[in-house]
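4.2 Preliminary Data

To establish feasibility before requesting continued support, the project team ran the inverse folding procedure on a target of 181 residues. The structure was first converted into the token representation described in Section 3, and no sequence information of any kind was made available to the design step. The complete token record follows.
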């Protein structure tokens, strides 16, 4: 947390969903506002509390998962393009549902602790204005893309590799060009 809050600016890629598909917001009549989403999520999925794993909330031991559940067929545009599973697809190999539901509130905690010293991309805007940034990444896609980048023009890569390559390239270029400083 100290690394994100203070100089130098740091770019952090985090491998879990930062939000949910638009259909989730529509179903529960939630505003398209990330801080409001985080607060609403905490009321129903209090995984930031002591001894509150995701499975306890799913099983009804605590929280109210039934009031805010999703469908494993609901995917965000980023998941569709990357060929990733839904943030609601639990108990499957390669699934990020559990890590997303366990960790979204960690982002809320960071946001409350460091305030506007960290830019949560893209929720705080598309440009990261000279401060630390936290971005959602899909490393499997990025790692494959990095290996393929050297030999293949990006326009010739399959879409998931293009997405990963673009993300990895953006992070490297932003760092090298001191765009975050």
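Position-by-position output of the design step:
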């Amino acid at each position: 947390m100290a690394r994100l809050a203070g100089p130098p600016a740091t770019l952090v890629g985090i491998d879990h969903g930062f939000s949910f598909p638009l259909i989730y917001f529509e179903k529960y009549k939630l505003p398209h506002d990330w801080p409001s989403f985080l607060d609403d999520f905490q009321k129903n999925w209090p995984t930031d509390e002591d001894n509150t794993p995701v499975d306890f909330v799913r099983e009804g031991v605590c929280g109210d998962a039934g009031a805010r559940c999703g469908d494993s067929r609901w995917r965000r545009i980023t998941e569709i393009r990357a060929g990733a599973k839904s943030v609601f697809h639990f108990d499957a190999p390669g699934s990020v549902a559990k890590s997303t539901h366990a960790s979204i509130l960690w982002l809320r905690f960071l946001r409350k602790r460091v305030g506007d010293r960290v830019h949560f991309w893209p929720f705080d805007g598309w440009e990261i204005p000279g401060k630390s940034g936290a971005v959602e990444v899909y490393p499997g896609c990025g790692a494959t893309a990095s290996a393929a980048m050297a030999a293949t023009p990006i326009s010739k890569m399959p879409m998931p590799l293009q997405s990963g390559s673009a993300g990895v390239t953006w992070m490297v270029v932003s760092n090298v060009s001191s765009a975050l400083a």
